């Protein structure tokens, strides 16, 4: 165990159990980074009450002495043979903990030798189903889908990295009544023209053209409705046309995924259409078992705790009064499949925050039906909206929605301007610009908490300072250049780490937290935690770099080896971390 926070949690718990009884062995010692020391433990205050005692400072002193095996009891700075650091009681009863330099250095040297860089591999791998991206074939894939795609892909990477079995599920919107008119439109304009338009990402224009005819041309309208019926029945010729439409659409989605370096493939497609055949049976079973009831002609589940106006129970409608199925029906079939067939231990839905009610009603209904047993964890990772500079949904100036590939092209162009003064040949420049542009766009989605809204702003995301993708990429490039100048490979720098300067110490202590940052990101489905950790690491590196020369001739051998080791470890942490976020790392920048 290398993460200081986890180490301290465990050690303080042991001290609590030893001092006050085994029932305290799992009390949370509330270890937090501190302004006055490396960490503080805030447990003494609440514990004092629980123990029926009066003075939290006394309790804190007892914990400190037990923790350290205090050499001289009663001292203000408590230290002893059992603990690699000193503890001081402060304020109302905080424990301020400062770790020994030698301990930090030793741990850093160990992490350097650890192929997992301090990340703890799970010893009981879970099957984690991640539902993400999920654009709708009948509409344009927009920046909102970009964000669910980017956040979902980061979560997938993190879970795979810690050893879980991940099943990606791209729940495409590829079914339903609009497909009647979409297929008829395909027949009207001809297969070739339709395919070309869809592959070019003009799904919106295609949809609108179909829609106009649907609304204004009775003959077309009639054909479209009839087509919905043959589609529901999966009639072969209709399915052939549907496949033509979908394949072209998916080819466009794949262009976006490839461009973004997203790990989704065709094998991960499990769209709404996949569940079509199961829907009648889903409804029948729920009705027979009394989980769903007819209300105003529709078949509904009324999960407990959901009420609308005037405390009316809120329906989760799985079959409309006209007999049609909807989003809720499909999602009930989907969740059953994920639990029963995919054997999910945990299901992560990375979906817009606007669908929060649908998701919580889905989970509650599925629990009622027994399709989501207690031991399976289901969560909605709510994705906040991406806004334009006017604070409204992100659109182009003309008010049209933005073409994703054009947006990514613009990112490349603007990134090229950021590195304009650097001396590279054209090919290298294009490659770096691409990595920087892509990294900037992706990191902007990942660095803020996934449920918050943010304003899409190229200038801010491409800045070389602050919590941005390019800043982190630049930090790695700078470290690589140190190794190039020093004529050693990053992996050759094995230390040992020795800590003499405060900036070395701060950097080393920070680096020990990588494993915990990754674990926390997996546990809380929160890539911004990992992003914040990487940013803090890069900032600690910047301070180190400004204060601690590495290659200068007057730096003695031992110090130089240690500093190179810190550089190497920082590089590995940043590169691994950025890779987990799906942010590409250019070698130079
Ligand atoms: N296609 C939906 C949308 O664009 C997202 C689907 C999410 N997944 C699910 N199982 N409901 O909003």
TrEMBL record:
Its EC number is 6.1.1.19. It catalyses: tRNA(Arg) + L-arginine + ATP = L-arginyl-tRNA(Arg) + AMP + diphosphate. Keywords: Aminoacyl-tRNA synthetase, ATP-binding, Cytoplasm, Ligase, Nucleotide-binding, Protein biosynthesis. Monomer. PROSITE patterns: AA_TRNA_LIGASE_I. This is Arginine--tRNA ligase. Residues 472-589 form the DALR anticodon binding domain. It is found in: Cytoplasm. Residues 6-99 form the Arginyl tRNA synthetase N-terminal domain. Coiled coil: none annotated. GO terms for molecular function: arginine-tRNA ligase activity; ATP binding. Belongs to the class-I aminoacyl-tRNA synthetase family. GO terms for biological process: arginyl-tRNA aminoacylation. GO terms for cellular component: cytoplasm. Pfam families: Arg_tRNA_synt_N, DALR_1, tRNA-synt_1d.
């Amino acid at each position: 165990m290398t993460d200081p926070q986890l180490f301290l949690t465990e050690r303080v718990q042991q001290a609590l159990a030893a001092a006050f009884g085994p029932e305290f062995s799992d009390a949370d010692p509330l270890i937090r980074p501190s302004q006055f020391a490396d960490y503080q433990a805030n447990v003494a205050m609440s514990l004092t009450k629980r123990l029926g005692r009066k003075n939290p400072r006394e309790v804190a002193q007892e914990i400190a002495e037990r923790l350290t095996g205090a050499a001289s009891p009663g001292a203000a700075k408590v230290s002893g043979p059992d603990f690699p650091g000193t503890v001081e009681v402060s304020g109302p009863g905080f424990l301020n903990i400062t770790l020994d330099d030698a301990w930090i250095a030793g741990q850093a040297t160990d992490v350097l030798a650890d192929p997992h860089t301090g990340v703890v591999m799970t010893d009981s791998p879970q099957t984690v189903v991640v539902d993400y991206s999920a654009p709708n074939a009948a509409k344009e894939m927009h920046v909102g889908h970009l964000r669910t795609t980017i956040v979902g892909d980061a979560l997938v990477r993190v879970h795979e990295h810690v050893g879980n079995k991940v099943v990606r599920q791209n729940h495409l919107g590829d079914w339903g009544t609009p497909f009647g008119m979409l297929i008829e439109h395909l027949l009207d304009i001809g297969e070739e023209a339709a395919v070309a338009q869809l592959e070019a990402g003009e799904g919106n224009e295609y949809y609108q053209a179909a829609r106009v005819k649907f609304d204004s041309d009775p003959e077309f309208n009639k054909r479209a409705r009839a087509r919905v019926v043959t589609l529901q029945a999966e009639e072969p010729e209709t399915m052939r046309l549907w496949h033509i439409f979908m394949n072209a659409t998916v080819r466009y989605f794949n262009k976006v995924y490839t461009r973004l370096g997203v790990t989704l493939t065709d094998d991960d497609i499990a769209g709404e259409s996949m569940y079509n055949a199961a829907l009648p049976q889903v409804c029948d079973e729920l009705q027979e078992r009394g989980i769903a009831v007819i209300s105003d002609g529709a078949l509904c589940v009324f999960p407990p705790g959901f009420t609308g106006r005037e405390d009316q129970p809120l329906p989760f409608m799985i079959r409309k009064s006209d007999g049609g199925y909807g989003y809720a029906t499909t999602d009930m079939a989907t969740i059953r499949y994920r639990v029963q067939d995919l054997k999910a231990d945990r299901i992560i839905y990375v979906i817009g925050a606007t669908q929060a009610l649908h998701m919580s009603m889905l989970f509650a209904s599925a629990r009622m039906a027994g399709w989501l047993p207690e031991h399976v964890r289901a969560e909605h990772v709510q994705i906040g909206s991406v806004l334009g500079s006017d604070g409204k949904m992100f659109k182009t100036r003309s008010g049209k929605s933005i073409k994703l590939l054009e947006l990514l092209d613009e990112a490349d162009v603007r990134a090229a301007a950021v590195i304009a003064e650097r001396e590279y040949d054209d090919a290298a420049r294009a490659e770096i610009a691409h990595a920087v542009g892509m990294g900037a766009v992706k990191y902007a989605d990942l660095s803020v908490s996934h449920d918050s809204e943010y304003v899409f702003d190229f200038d801010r995301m491409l800045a070389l300072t602050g919590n941005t993708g390019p800043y982190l990429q630049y930090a790695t490039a700078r470290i690589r250049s140190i190794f190039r100048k020093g004529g050693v490979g990053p992996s050759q720098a094995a230390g040992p780490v020795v800590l003499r300067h405060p900036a070395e110490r701060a950097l080393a202590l920070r680096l020990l937290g990588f494993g915990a940052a990754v674990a926390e990101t997996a546990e809380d489905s929160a890539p911004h935690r990992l992003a914040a950790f990487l940013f803090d690491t890069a900032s600690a590196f910047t301070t180190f770099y400004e204060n601690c020369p590495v290659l200068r001739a007057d730096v003695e051998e031992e110090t130089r080896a240690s500093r190179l080791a810190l550089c190497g470890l920082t590089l590995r942490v940043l590169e691994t971390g950025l890779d987990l976020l799906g942010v590409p790392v250019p070698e130079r920048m």
